[in-house]
From TrEMBL:
It holds the Pfam family AMP-binding. GO terms for cellular component: membrane. This is Acyl-CoA synthetase. Belongs to the ATP-dependent AMP-binding enzyme family. SUPFAM superfamilies: Acetyl-CoA synthetase-like. GO terms for molecular function: long-chain fatty acid-CoA ligase activity. Keywords: Fatty acid metabolism, Ligase, Lipid metabolism.
Amino acid sequence: MTGEDRGTLLDLLHRNATEHADVPALVDGEQQLTWAEYQRQSSALALALLDLGVTRGDVVGLHMVNRVEHALADIGALLAGATPTSYYNTLSPEQLAYVTRDSACTVAIVDADMLDAWLTIRDELPALSAILVLDVEAPTEGVRRFDVQLARATQELESRIGEVTAAAARVRPDDPVTVVYTSGTTGRPKGTIITHAGVRAVLDATTARVVGELGLHPDPGLCQVSYLPLAHMAERMITHYFSFEHASTVHFVRDLQQLPQVLPRARPHLFLGVPRVWEKFHSAIIDRAASQPSPVRRALGTKAMDIARRVGQAKFGRRRLDLATRLWHAVFDRVVYRKIRRTLGFDRILIAVSGAAPVSRETLAFFHGIGITIIEAYGMTETSALLTINDLRDPRPGSVGTAISGVELRIADDGEILARGANIVPGYLNRPDATAEAFDADGWLHTGDLGSIDKDGHLSIRGRKKELIITAGGKNISPANVEQAIADASELIGPVYVHGDARPYLVALITLDPTSWQSWCSARGIHVATLADAVAHPQVRAEVERAVEAGNATLSRVEQVKRWVLLDREWDSTTGELTPTLKLKRSVIRENHAGDLGRLYD
């Protein structure tokens, strides 16, 4: 099937508004829109953008939390013939100025909290003609109220719908559906051009996998939860675009801290979690079991957690369980696991996905044991989010599954994963040099990831090609594998950075998990007020030392970390060590912690 045959995202919008008009499409707190209302309001917004001078191919910048208006603005821009581009809310003004200049943003639609950053950089953006702001009664001069523009266009929509229809009719499958900026782990972020055809190819392939291989037949109205940044391609694909394919209902989470409250209300059928989210859920469940008020309940909670892990591990290893474990599991499923699923909001989950980074085998086994099977998937922005996905019937920890239909994979002589298919993007915005480097003349994308494919077609990731450490002894080591081994050994540990290029041995900078160190300490009666207090506590340091030893035990001798330091600060995208998608910025870490790294070799 060609891109022309698949059509555009707007074709799916029209189908849903016609065939599933009354099915809820967007839910944001008390606000709810059906698919018919979704089309009508996004069409009104398209008219407002046309009145602001937006023309075919212009970029409309979106700088908002996950909310109904973000989705309306995205689709409204497409209906106007423009290209919507979401920017991370954590960008500094300097970073925001770079991506908005690079994308030649003409109109920006922003949350009130983002307005000051835009006013700071407005004079640096020659292409910017208008800023629309939400939730501000009296905006600064030169800034328009979003609600006023939308209301005015809504009043005129019936008489002027032809203008929107004409603009939308010119949108072709090979046109951009969005521009997504990469994380910028090795330099300036690159604007990746995602097309309607690429998105539709992934949607068709995942539907074929779900229906054909798993036997699931998604009905209109399936529920999803949108909480990861819409500047991230995986979130766009798994919630925003997937909802168009299946006329599903998306519940928005404006603040990540509200996710535990929204999930039980939404009760999603499909849920995407990055490893940090799954591991946070895991830690919370374990901590709750360990902090039960009575000794009997604590003992039963600990037993239930142990049985879940053992059952999950046995299933992954295709081992038969002994009778006692099977009986315990059946009992705990009725009195414990079912309650956990309901409390989390996963009592009707059909597909739980983990992506963006490896998730620990222990976490996968635990959730498998309590009746939530998490399947790992692999892809990148340049593949329209997806290349491979595990089989829900037979997930294989350590593998990211097999290629989706229409995708070819091969391993280059140096171990790099190459991919080709209809989902591969045409290139980077304004970067012909980077495009030529990543995409060869035969259409193969050079992913930059190292991996292997087994006889059954299952892909395993070994690390990043450009991040390989070559020790003084000439050994090639993937730091990601070492970092993962240490982080997986304890729920207390957060991001880990391993160093050792041209050095005789490996060393590590270790941080505590910002989402769990307090609860970990509290569950063990460790009274600490600050992160620095926790880092200095003997029991915390002993746990980190145990985790390093446990991680080292899974590695070859040359991969083992010989010395390490536990940092008394957190890493995140605002401090610079992590990208907005929580990947390590290795050059920043090396520069910021040159002294720590040097002392580890003294």
